[in-house]
Amino acid sequence: ERNLLVKLTSDLSNNMKLTISGLYNSVDAVGNNDVGQPGVFRSAGSVADVLTQAGFTINSRIFYDSYWPLSDVDRYNISAKFTHALSSNTFYEAKLERVHTKYHTRPNAQRDTTKVYDVGVGFLVDEAPYGNEERLVFGVDGMLMGVRANARDFSELSTTTLKFDFTSQVNNTNLIKTGIEVVHNNYNMEFGAINDVLPTQRPWTDWERSPLRAALYLQDKLEFKGLIANAGLRLDYIDPRGTWWNFGDDPYNQAFFSTDFDPGEEVNFDQVSVDKQLTISPRLGISHPITINSKLFFNYGHFRQMPISDRLYNVRRTFQDQLSLIGDPNLPLQKTVAYELGYEHS
């Protein structure tokens, strides 16, 4: 694993500050699963975990260097933040950030089947069990020496975020905070498992999406004698962008969901524009000091969260193109309504 961090901070003037930072992380490792999901072995304990329930493949897991796939992950994060104090009680911050992740999961180098190793009396063998072999091959003791390292992952993900926050102490009673955040995601997902000898139920995912979401908030902190209150509103907007399949009165269309599916006919299925969503979330917090060390408090708020991309956009098929999982980009934002009433003593 390799890491590189660079950070530059400059005071442009007495009231302006610019910070630029960059982070690069590269991992060259061995994948810990056989279906193309993210995850690598990071400790001796994680390796031991996959040996405890290995069954007849125990020797293969130890001695076959292509039992698990090679998995490389490259990430970088670049950001710039600008802070400007307009006065002694008012300032704003603007930040632009980009995060990019690239996965490369694949089998080891192909096995050289040239028989050049003499094990005695002129009996020549190849380099097995080393090297990847796509055929079903067993050693003289029954050790599996092929059809492993099925995982593949060639996905790339990037997120670009623009954020602006404004804070002002308007008077002795009111501290106003407001801001906006815009997030653009780009998903290029291509991962799964490939096994030509045992193809049944090998999943494969392949989709691209570029959703856009934004948030706007306004908050006022009110301070009175014996009472502190935080009141605010948050506006969330999500645009999945693009279209999605519409099956109308035939939600279990055999031509799409079953092994009858023909990839060349995918564009002929009816599609409609995906819905945009706009939600408002109120939030309120009240604190009443009783003594120097104690207070009563009450908090109430609505909190929204975007479902994971896998539940929104994933289209996963198995052997013979049968559908095993399909997302729904029209899923509503996950909503939590929280209440809290309590007493605190320190």
How would you describe this protein?
- This protein is mainly β.
- It has a single domain (2-49, 70-106, 148-345), classed as TonB-dependent receptor, beta-barrel domain (Maltoporin, Chain A, Beta Barrel), CATH 2.40.170.
- Helices cover 6% and strands 53% of the residues.
- The strands form 3 sheets. It has a 15-stranded antiparallel sheet that branches. Strands 5-6 form a two-stranded antiparallel ribbon.
- A hairpin with a 5-residue loop joins strand 17 (315-317) and strand 18 (323-326).
- The two termini are 44 Å apart.
- The model has no long low-confidence stretch (mean pLDDT 90).
Strand content: over 45%
CATH homologous group name:
TonB-dependent receptor, beta-barrel domain
Assign a percent range to the helix content: under 10%
Shape: elongated
How large, in whole angstroms, is the Cα Rg?
28 Å
Order of helices and strands: EEHHEEEEEEEEEEEHEEEHEEE
Number of strands: 19
Secondary structure class reads mainly beta
* Uncertain regions spanning at least 5 consecutive residues: none
- Mean model confidence by pLDDT: 90
| Terminal-residue CA separation | 44 Å
DSSP helical segment count? 4
Instruction: Please identify the oligomeric state.
Output: single chain
What profile does the largest beta sheet have? 15 strands, antiparallel
CATH class: Mainly Beta
Q: Identify the CATH architecture.
A: Beta Barrel
CATH topology, anyone?
A: Maltoporin, Chain A
